Amino acid sequence: MLPGVYIAYKKNGTAYYRASITYRSKHISLGSFDTEENANLAYQEAVQLLGNTSISFEDAFSLPTILSFGKVISLLNFRDNLIYFKNPIYLRNNYFIYYISKSDELKFDIDDLFYYSSHKIMRRQGHLFVSDYGMQINILSRYGIKNYAVAGRDYYFVNEDPTDYRYSNIVIVNKYYGVTKISSSRGEAYKVQIHVNGNYIVGTYQNEEKAAIAYNKAVDLAKKHGISKNFQANYLEHYSPRQYAEIYSQIKISEKYINYLQNLSG
Questions:
Q1: pLDDT of residue 155
Q2: What is the pLDDT of residue 6?
Q3: Per-residue model confidence (pLDDT) at position 188
Q4: Which of 55, 156, 210, 266 has minimal Cβ neighbours within 10 Å of its Cβ?
């Protein structure tokens, strides 16, 4: 066999060729190929990328390679930063870049390196997600952004770059279900809405946590009146059960919403 190539067989007995390389005592798989020649070409490309420092990181975006672009990034990161990741990650000073493709890059804090080095990011219908314990998890949830959240209203990026997921760049405006921050004559306030065959206003509150509790109460009332919709409830970790119950019992809910529920069940 040509250097860096070994033969393998599919379940139906068809032969294919795998390429690999060892660099700094690390054995790296380069992929599978239909011909021995292509597998060897992948090996030769890897030798060049790892051994030729005149090939800069920026060159990776214009080099025609048989290796996948993600593999090229992994190899260059290993060469330049002496750490190998299976995922297409390149380390920068105090942050890293994750490349979904040549034109699709995401920035993350180093604190997220362990997670994304073991979780592949995928983009589907404009959403970014990873597979975690067999479930598709939207990466926005890692930053406290709810699935229903709207960019520019519920959260925003400080530098206006929606591909920059560094923590200092993400500001969450509305962190609770059903709660929207608004401006009122008395300053900032929090409007609560619930969706039951349309949006119904639950009330407006001066305190964000009380607004979140009001939404929970509105959800409980909806369920009490036979609405089986799968509502998400707000979790408020800073309140003891007693404190929560006291606020819950005193919080006022829109009479219009209550009348709607009563007419619905009556």
A1: 95
A2: 95
A3: 87
A4: 266
Six-digit token string for 39: 């597998």
The tokens of 76 are what?
């260059």
Give the strand order in the sheet containing 199-205.
179-184, 187-195, 199-205
pLDDT at 189 (0 to 100): 93
Helix, strand, or coil (residue 69):
helix
Cβ–Cβ under 8 Å, residues 76 and 28? no
DSSP states of 40-58 as a string? HHHHHHHHHHHH-TTS-TG
Cα separation of 34 and 17, whole Å? 6
Judge whether 130 and 141 are in contact, CB under 8 Å: no
> What is the reported pLDDT for 265?
67
Distance CA 41, CA 63 (A): 14
SS3 breakdown of the chain: % helix, strand, coil, rounded to 5?
35, 30, 35
Q: How far apart are CA 190 and CA 252, in angstroms?
A: 14
Give the C-alpha separation, 164 to 155, whole Å: 13
| Residue at token pair 């219009």 | 256
Q: Please tell me the distance from the alpha carbon of residue 151 to that of residue 173, in angstroms, as a whole number.
A: 10
Give yes or no for residue 228 having a pLDDT over 90. Answer: no
